[in-house]
Amino acid sequence: MALDNTTATAGHNNPPPYDVAALAEFDNKISDFNSAAKEWLDLGDIETEEQAEKLGDFITGTSKLIKKVDNQRSADKKPHLDAGREIDAEYNSRKSKLSALLVGSGKIPGVKAILDRFLTKKQAELEAKQRAEQEEAERKAEAARLAALEAEQTNDLVAQDEAAKAQEEAEKAKAEAEKPTKARVGSASGGGRTISRRKVKTASILNINVAFMQFSDAPEVAEVLVMLANRKIRAVDWDGVDPKGFEVTEKEVL
User: Fold this and answer.
1) Do the Cβ atoms of 243 and 232 come closer than 8 Å?
2) In angstroms, what CA-CA distances link 80 with 15, 18, 20, 74, 90?
3) What is the residue extent of each domain of the chain?
4) SS3 for 7?
5) Pseudo-torsion of CA 136, 140, 142, 146, nearest 10°?
6) Over the stretch 163-210, which tens digit does the pLDDT of each residue have?
7) 3-state DSSP call for residue 195?
């Protein structure tokens, strides 16, 4: 007999994460229900009370089987959900501790506050240096302008050429001094990222009606509104008053 030399993949011996026997039993029942459904569909319309009662039993039985399948799904899934929650709890607790080192906890600040103070001070120093460079560039530009004016008045071509070059250099220095400046901290090891302060925009609602009108065309808004309206009209204590802005329809279903 030839040996199967197929290389086994990792985890090939692990059982599936669901009840195989339960699924097999459901498959057998589904096959039976499918055969019965085909007979009803082949029959088409029913004419007697007895047929209606039998079809009602079939519908009830199918609905019960759907419920059993869903209950088994929940049972099979529960250990994995529980395991997932346990995994999340363990890892999130570690993440929380590490985050506390950075941003602090309670009244104790984290280490980010130290770097933030340093970057704030460094940014102020950079801005002060930039202002000084801008003032110096403007002073040189004004001196070059006056020199060019004097050379023009005295017809001194050499002085005029020198003044033009000085003006060009002054404009370059002025443009360089006006470039945005941002305090940054590099990596001591070379393996880390450069860190700088950044602006983060956060919105908060001042007027909910105005905010709603601005985003009223978003499909997510309509979905939330329909969900809230359905929750209201399907509640056991619904007062029978339709939610404003909605059309409530009712139809009979099996």
Assistant:
1) yes
2) 14, 10, 16, 10, 15
3) 20-105, 110-196, 204-243
4) coil
5) 150
6) 888 888 888 888 888 888 888 888 888 888 888 888 889 999 999 999
7) strand
